[in-house]
Amino acid sequence: MPHRPIPTPIIHRLLLLASLAAVTACSSEASLPQALPRSGNEPVATVNGRPIPRGVFEVMLGVTRQEKASEAEATGQTAQPELTEADHQAILDRLITLEAVVQEAAKQGFGTDDAFLHELALQRDTLIAQRFLAEASKKIEIDDAAIAEYYAQLPKHFEYDLRQIVTADEASARAVIAKLKDGADFAQLASEMSQAPEAANGGSLGWLMAEQLPTTIADAVRAMQAGTFTDQPLQTPQGWHVVRVEGVRQLEQVPLETARAWIEGELRNQKIQQMIDQMRASAKVEILAN
């Protein structure tokens, strides 16, 4: 389960770094016990004598690499981008800025109230859970048979060539249906009785997927065959609809090799969710207040 890219606005970066600082700081005032890093404590810089640990710097290098890789993937680039000396300097500058802001906040007594410490503990627990699940995801093996089975069960998608007649009230729509049952031409009736914009074109909507239609109409259309019309009026906020299906065609399925990575991710997420559900089910829970 790959991590989502970390957002880049400065406030999000500051929040991320503040969380990291809380986990790695040697002099935390938080009441919860915290493990301290065994390596990466050597400073890359100091601000007013307080060190910025190399471990935090390395974490930010990793975050930036991930951001650049995501940007490259989005633009179709295949080569993994390398960080430049300018990237390293920009990261160090952000860490120095963060430390200066944190020190000033500490001078003003910020960050010692209970609400803040509880929020900090929640962020720490969330980060631990995310990292734990990410590592667990890497160990999950998804075989070709599972991918093929999932692919075979993907829903088929269809397009429908539609016409419609829209009236202001149910009685008028039922009158339309009666005329159609008596053999009236749908396109001619649409031009005469429909209040929809496409009336001048015989009520033609062209080819549409059911997902593009209001739910009431989509449900009816999925059950219809080419050459049939709805025998009951369908109501939407736009009015009362009588719909005719002129044609139906199945859309081409995405090739298996194209869908493979996405399917593997979905199956991996399913297994992770099963792990989470099992952990929750086996936990002894006692709810004391809400």
Write the layout of secondary structure elements.
Elements: H1 10-24, E1 43-47, E2 50-53, H2 54-74, H3 85-107, H4 114-138, H5 144-152, E3 158-167, H6 170-181, H7 186-193, E4 204-209, H8 215-222, E5 228-229, E6 234-236, E7 239-250, H9 256-282
Antiparallel strand pairs: 1-2, 3-4, 3-7, 5-7, 6-7
Helix pairs in contact: 2-3, 5-9
Describe the structure.
Keywords: Isomerase, Rotamase, Signal. InterPro entries: PPIase_dom_sf (IPR046357), PPIase_PpiC (IPR000297), PrsA_foldase (IPR050245), Trigger_fact/SurA_dom_sf (IPR027304). GO terms for molecular function: peptidyl-prolyl cis-trans isomerase activity. It comes from bacterium enrichment culture clone F5-11. Helices cover 51% and strands 14% of the residues. By secondary structure, the chain is an alpha+beta fold. The protein has 3 domains: 10-138, no CATH class; 144-152 and 253-282, no CATH class; 158-250, Chitinase A, domain 3 (Roll). The strands form 2 sheets. Strands 3, 4, 5, 6 and 7 form a 5-stranded antiparallel beta sheet that branches. Strands 1-2 form a two-stranded antiparallel sheet. Helix 2 (54-74) packs across helix 3 and helix 5 packs across helix 9 (256-282). The protein is elongated, with a radius of gyration of 30 Å. Mean pLDDT is 87; it is low at 1-15 and 18-33.
